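seq as requested:
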Amino acid sequence: MSLADPVLVEVVRGDAVECVHRGAAVVCDADGRVVFSLGDIDRSIYPRSAIKALQALPLIESGAADRYGFGNKELALACSSHGGEPRHAETSAGMLAKAGLDETALECGAHWPSGAAATHALARSGGKPSALHNNCSGKHAGFLCVACAQDIDPKGYVGIGHSVQRFVAEAVGEVTGHRLDRDTAIGTDGCSIPTYAVPLAKLAHGFAKLATGHGVGPERAKAFARLRAACAAEPFMVAGSGRFCTDVMLLLGARAFVKTGAEGVFCAALPEQGLGIALKCADGASRASEVMMAALIAKLLPMDEAEAAKFRRFVRPTMKNWNGITVGGIRPTFS
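struct tokens:
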């Protein structure tokens, strides 16, 4: 991202704009046609956790999900960046157990739950953070189940040369239409798997395919429909209490799949409109990327008056100080 990108979000305190956030955003249909854009949409970015639904494709396509009897909660957790609440950690452990593994097989690293309440509860109980509390443990449990279902040695599954990561890269590359090879920037994600830079417009195109199943073949279309349905049925598993992705999907149901990624990235699929959205806040601020995504959903998704009123808090959130006094707010600069 660069200063050439427009200001898309303003932070207001009192009567003055106190801070601005630049970024880029794009909306595509399943044919790859750009129907709306702001900023540089052709620059490649690391999508980070925003593409976990694409990375979960091998879990279904390998037959692992069916072999281990996974339902909506497990599939939703495989697409998640969860808060490490008890149900998240327990479901991750359950997925591993069905493959004959435990948390020691996870190679994502351990950290305290990202939700404050869950962290306090764990600390009060004398517990310690484990890899199960890692926000990516559901995705990693899915990776391990793919390996076990295919009789592949799971050790080192996070490595770029491991069969599981090759399956993931092939799926993401095919869906986005962007080859994930040595010609693109490659980094290491926070959970230790490879992350590949992809143009923003191609990410939006990939999420339009996720929304519609068009252009991916019948079996992958079924896999996408299954993942969308799982996340709509179990939005808590995708993020957690008080989190944007969960709260938006609780309100909108199957009409929208939304997924955040680190450093201000957000992607979404709108099945009824057949559209995919991808955006990047230049400075990586999640408060701005959430407002950008909410504004785009409000622009694209028809809502009745009551629904629009409930959704407004996402588009124009208020800011309060420690005394609970409203001191300002955050707003998009585009309609």
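The two ends are 22 Å apart (CA to CA).
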